[in-house]
Design goal:
The protein is mainly β and about 200 residues long. Helices cover about 15% and strands about 45% of the residues. It has 2 domains: about 1-30; about 50-199, Allene oxide cyclase-like (AOC barrel-like). The mean pLDDT is about 90. The structure holds 2-acetamido-2-deoxy-beta-D-glucopyranose (NAG) (2 copies). This is Dirigent protein.
Length: about 200
């Protein structure tokens, strides 16, 4: 008895949920334009207020050596005489981002993505990264970076191509400066200054 009651209340819940779902499918506002799948919205509909400009500064720790690397090579550069720039190498990273330059400093996010050696003439990386923040008002939000990183230059600029959460509609740029590079291990600490427009 108790079991069948349990099952029927489960079924009832399911019924309510599915009918609510189909109701919402029917009542969801349909795009009104002639093409049938798009419409023009007022920014107020998405509760977008004034656009802000934020400056974020954090330190990127690219750890390639030791027992717990955060950057791993997934494609080796072919051993031709092009390899003086490592052309063809690809690495996957999940690098910690900290508030200060020390690795023990407060973790504010992680840089997750791929970089690859995309230049024949110099050491120039193609960076395709998401900065995933885990602290403060940007906790849970991400910024997406897609750009060229000529690692030997003192300052490299990469576009912010978008974002999520607080960073929806983001655009801007990131400047990278290498603060530490261990020639023996390849480990690096890079300062990032990110200037980003968002709502
Ligand atoms: C590249 O390697 C080939 C074969 O080893 C050699 O003949 C050629 O001169 C090299 N080219 C350059 C630009 O070093
Ligand atoms: C960030 O958000 C997660 C998920 O909501 C939460 O568990 C965590 O405590 C937050 N961290 C900080 C430092 O606010």
């Amino acid at each position: 008895m108790a079991k069948s009651l349990h099952i029927s209340s489960f079924l009832l819940t399911l019924l309510i949920l599915t009918s609510a779902l189909s109701f919402s499918l029917i009542t969801a506002k349909k795009p009104k334009s002639r093409d049938g799948y798009s419409r023009v919205l007022s920014p107020a509909t998405l509760r977008l207020k004034k656009e802000k400009l934020s400056h974020l500064r954090f330190y990127f720790h690219d750890i390639v050596a030791g027992p717990n690397p955060t950057a791993v090579q997934i494609v080796r550069a072919p051993s031709t005489n092009l390899s003086s720039t490592g052309f063809g190498m690809v690495a996957m990273i999940d690098d910690p981002l900290t508030a200060g330059p020390e690795p023990t400093s407060k973790l504010v996010g992680r840089a997750q993505g791929i970089y690859g050696s995309a230049s024949l003439g110099d050491v120039g990386l193609l960076m395709a990264l998401n900065f995933a923040f885990v602290d403060g008002k940007f906790n849970g939000s991400t910024l997406s970076i897609l750009g060229r990183n000529a690692v030997m230059s003192p300052v490299r600029e990469m576009p912010v191509v978008g974002g999520s959460g607080v960073f929806r509609f983001a655009r801007g740029y990131a400047q990278a400066r290498t603060r530490k590079f261990n020639l023996r291990t390849g480990d690096a600490v890079v300062e990032y200054n990110v200037y980003v427009f968002h709502y």
